[in-house]
Design a protein that fits this description.
Helix content is about 75%, strand content about 0%. With about 80 residues, the chain is mostly helical. The longest helix is centred in the N-terminal third of the chain and has 23 residues, at about 5-30.
């Protein structure tokens, strides 16, 4: 899968993140549960990635997420289970 290294790609990535965060805030303001927004975001992201890169590439990405999640890469606050 493509990685973003160029400055203009980073700028576009930040713009995209900003748009997603605005939509997330709007959903929260309307009372949508964060986990429902997360599932919708994951579904949307995965379907778009499959369309762009194919099932095998996205499956490889998803397999790699297991270790990253367990290592705490996506943990914002220090809770562990």
């Amino acid at each position: 899968m493509q990685t973003f290294c160029r400055t203009e790609d980073r700028s576009d990535s930040y713009k995209a993140l900003s748009i997603i965060l605005e939509a997330w805030d709007e959903g929260a303001d309307q009372g949508i549960a964060p986990e429902l927004m997360a599932y919708a975001a994951l579904f949307t992201a995965l379907t778009d990635l499959v369309a762009a890169f194919g099932e095998d590439a996205v499956a490889n990405l998803a397999r790699g997420l297991d270790a990253r999640v367990r290592q705490g890469e996506f943990t914002i606050y220090g809770t562990t289970q």
